[in-house]
Design a protein that fits this description.
Helix content is 36%, strand content 21%. With 177 residues, the chain is of the alpha+beta class. This is A-kinase anchor protein 14.
Length: 177
């Protein structure tokens, strides 16, 4: 009796794809229901924002502080913990871009070390050509998404973090070692 690795691999890939499609459909339904609830009665929800530091006040430490101050405005469960890491600096002709990663998780008593984390990547742009008294420009993206968010323009949704973590956990469950 021989074991057909190719058939087994194809079956594993097919199951993973079907599971991913189901997850995407569930997420889209959930997002749509959130949109319908949040825009009921033509009320537009306010997006969070803070007063950002000026270009001349910028430093790595100040960048971490303002990111902390900004994410403190996000409405989320208090069980979420995060850490902010400085990643790198990119030098361009007209600005410098400082990249940070904010890693989120929900540790519990039963699982103090989380099975998965969700990352949000922040970029702080310090202009070389604008007056140094103007504020820095900030934008951020959630892991696994290409949508670029700007403070004051889009409202944080806790479900974005939950979706990243649940998709990672589900992907890990599909793989056996």
């Amino acid at each position: 009796m021989s074991f057909n690795f190719e058939e087994e691999a194809n079956e594993l890939v097919r199951e993973a794809i079907e599971s991913a499609i189901k997850q995407v459909v569930l997420e889209k339904r959930h997002d749509l229901s959130n949109i319908l609830v949040n825009y009921n009665d033509n009320e537009k929800p306010k997006a969070e924002n803070i007063k950002w530091i000026s270009c001349k006040e910028y430093s790595k430490e100040a960048g971490i502080e303002v990111i902390e101050k900004f994410i403190a405005t996000w409405k989320r469960d208090s069980a979420w913990l995060y850490c902010i890491d400085y990643i790198d600096e990119e030098s361009h002709d007209f600005d410098r871009r400082f990249n940070f990663r904010v890693r989120w998780s929900i540790p519990t008593r039963r699982r103090p070390i989380p099975r998965a984390t969700a990352s949000v990547y922040f970029t702080i742009r310090v202009s070389r050509i604008k007056p140094p008294t103007l504020p820095v420009e900030v934008y951020y993206v959630f892991e696994g998404s290409r949508l670029v968010h700007r403070p004051g323009k889009s409202r944080f949704r806790e479900s974005w973090l939950k979706n990243v973590i649940s998709s990672k956990v589900e992907a890990m469950e599909q793989v056996t070692f």
